[in-house]
Design brief:
The structure holds two protein chains of two kinds. By secondary structure, chain A is an alpha/beta fold. Chain A contains ten helices and ten strands. In chain B, 52% of the residues are buried. The chains are: A alpha/beta, B alpha/beta.
């Protein structure tokens, strides 16, 4: 796995209903990938803290200053990065490193009025749009539900993994999210990650109702809440546990998706 | 009266909204349950069923896909993108859609503007907001009479709760009540009270009935041994409108 992950660049985003466990799986996935030697950026467009917890970070706010952008040309985007900005340098300056070397990149939490994050959001999006040309594996996390997922926030991802709890609401949300592939910016491949699974029946139900393969199954584990309460990542709290093992199993399976010819994708 | 229900994803906003709306309905008051979530599933918790919930999502989607007419008035909106739920509750789906027509009441009007601009007459409105605080942060001053900030005793949910409290105070949103859901011990309640310094608080013990209802996609009213979840909300309904 280690040698392969340095060749194929994973660009994955985790989507799903609020509370389904996206952020925790995304954070664990990102750290495990980084431990294999890969260069990983964890992208967070959710203004609520989540991914930072799963990455074991104490600080979750590294706001991008407003003066990193200038007004764009007429007819173009409203704000653009200052000319001469190097995306890689920008990323290194405004991202937070985790213990495992993942760079955590977000635009600053929404504390102030709505308008105050517009410029940082533009800067973030523009840097993110340039990441695929750079040498980074991307693990993304969006806010819960459909808003960000269905509005082009995940353009950077080739693969979208829908985190689904085996509940009727989880299934309905997942059905809506599967429409992401129809968008021009949509992911090439979508798969299901079943979370908080208690039995094999859960998996069968999800595959049958959604018609998309389940790429991984993550068991319900009390260690997740314990880790959150201790303010450490699940990876540090329970490194040998079933949760970490299940997330770790996702990495080779996601890599394998990149071998699938494009006409055979979902 | 306009009641907003907010909180982190997965804390139980939708279940609380549904039980509150039905409890108000049982008291004989006219009530509209608004699903303001981009991912509408309040229908399930109200007990209208999986098929009917997906049917109204589909109708809403047709407007988004430009395959159906927009609704041009509030009444039209609630009749076309809505359905009757038990206990006299009218459910309306008012989530934002993808191709809004400027000025159109059914789509250009976002949930936050709908709440502030629509005249709901005598009806009591219970609005189930989307996860996080996106919409809530954009509702103007004094537009909501009662805000229920639903939390569970986990640090991340309490983070969201703290921010919601700040926003509600800053925007002068009338009365705000913390609903501490899924509380299974005095220590957990202590955690909530320590994080959210707010006296107006309702405690709902952890309920197996709620877990069961969620898994099956039905109303918690239709699951046995549901009192731990329902009773505190019924009491709130009486206090608010009884």
């Amino acid at each position: 796995m280690a040698e392969k992950s340095t060749k194929t660049k994973i660009r994955v985003v985790f989507v799903g209903k609020g509370g389904s466990g996206k952020s925790t799986i995304a954070g664990t996935f990102a750290q495990l990938l980084a431990r294999s030697g890969a260069k990983v950026v964890a992208l967070d467009s959710d203004p609520m803290p989540g991914l930072s917890y799963a990455l074991g970070l104490d600080i979750d706010d590294m706001p991008i200053p407003e003066d990193t952008v200038i007004e764009g040309p007429l007819g173009g985007p409203k704000w653009i990065l200052k000319p001469g900005t190097d995306p890689e340098e920008f990323l290194m300056q405004y991202s937070i490193p985790t213990a495992d070397g993942v760079r955590y990149f977000q635009f600053g939490n929404v504390q102030g009025p709505w308008i105050s994050i517009v410029k940082p959001q533009h800067a973030w999006s523009e840097v993110v749009s340039k990441l695929p040309q750079l040498d980074w594996n991307i693990v993304g996390d969006v806010s819960g539900g459909l808003r960000q997922a269905m509005n082009g926030w995940t353009k950077y991802a080739d693969v979208a993994l829908i985190v689904v709890e085996p509940t009727v609401k989880g299934v309905i949300t997942a059905k809506q999210l599967l429409k992401m592939t129809k968008a021009s910016w949509g992911p090439r491949i979508m798969r299901i990650v079943a979370n908080k699974v208690q039995s094999d029946d859960d998996l069968e139900m999800l595959e049958k109702k959604l018609g998309v393969p389940v790429i991984g199954s993550v068991p319900w584990s009390p260690a997740i809440l314990e880790a959150e309460r201790a303010r450490v990542s699940p990876l540090v709290h329970d490194p040998q546990g079933t949760y970490v093992e299940a997330v770790s199993n996702l990495i080779p399976r996601v890599l394998k998706l990149y071998d699938i010819p494009i006409d055979q994708t979902y | 009266m306009k009641i907003a229900v907010v909180g982190k994803g997965g804390v139980g906003k939708t279940s609380v909204s549904a039980v509150l709306a039905r409890s108000i309905g049982r008291l004989g008051k006219p009530v509209v349950a608004l699903d303001c979530d981009t991912n509408p599933n309040l229908g399930l918790s109200l007990g209208v069923g999986d098929i009917e919930t997906q049917r109204i999502i589909g109708i809403r989607q047709q407007v988004s896909d430009r395959e159906a007419e927009h609704a041009h008035t509030w009444d039209d909106l609630i009749s076309r993108f809505g359905t009757d739920a038990p206990d006299g509750v009218r459910l309306g789906i008012v989530n934002r859609i993808e191709n809004p027509e400027p000025g159109c009441p059914c789509c250009g009007l976002s949930a936050e503007r709908l709440l502030s601009q629509t005249n709901f007459g005598e009806s009591i409105v219970v609005g189930d907001f989307e996860a996080g605080l996106g919409i809530f942060s954009r509702v103007g001053e004094s537009q909501i009479d009662i805000t229920l900030i639903v939390v569970e005793p986990t640090p991340r949910s309490l983070d969201v709760g703290m921010r919601a409290l700040e926003l509600a105070r800053k925007n002068k949103q009338g009365r705000f009540i913390v609903v501490a859901n899924k509380v299974s011990s005095p220590a957990e309640l202590g955690l909530v009270k320590q994080s959210l310094t707010h006296d107006d608080i309702i405690v709902i013990p952890f309920s197996e009935a709620l877990v069961d209802a969620d898994r099956r996609g039905i109303s918690v009213f239709d699951v046995k041994d549901n009192e731990t979840f329902i009773t505190p909300i019924e009491r709130l309904a009486v206090e608010l409108v009884g």
